[in-house]
Amino acid sequence: MNSYKQSLYSGIVRITANLLMVGAVFLAMYMAAHTPGGSVMTFCGWFFGVSVPVWMLAGWLTRRIRRLYPAEELTWIELPGKGTAFVKWTVCGRADTSIVHATESGSAH
Description:
The structure is a single chain. The protein is mainly alpha-helical. It has one domain (2-88). Helix content is 56%, strand content 11%. The protein has 2 helices and 2 strands. The chain has helices at 2-33, 40-68; strands at 74-79, 83-88. A two-stranded antiparallel ribbon has the order 1-2. Strand 1 and strand 2 (83-88) form a beta hairpin. Helix 1 packs antiparallel against helix 2 (40-68). The chain is elongated and about 80 Å long. The termini are far apart. The model has no long low-confidence stretch (mean pLDDT 81).
């Protein structure tokens, strides 16, 4: 269930951030149109002034969502030199328990 919530809430954050970006374009165009000569600097100032905080907030919210609703296969462990992190554990296959003895090459028995 956590994977579903994580995907749902992260998707909502991304969609909201993209809609805010469309709004930022319109706001920047509106503000640039009200300056003498339709200044490009005014457009850039408003556009980046809105878009940078929006994407910083979206990234922060996405990290919070991943911490609150981790996927089922993820666990917290302490990594040397990196602190605590989510780790996905997978089983690659069954361990081979047979012992194979090495033989010398070129020996005839």
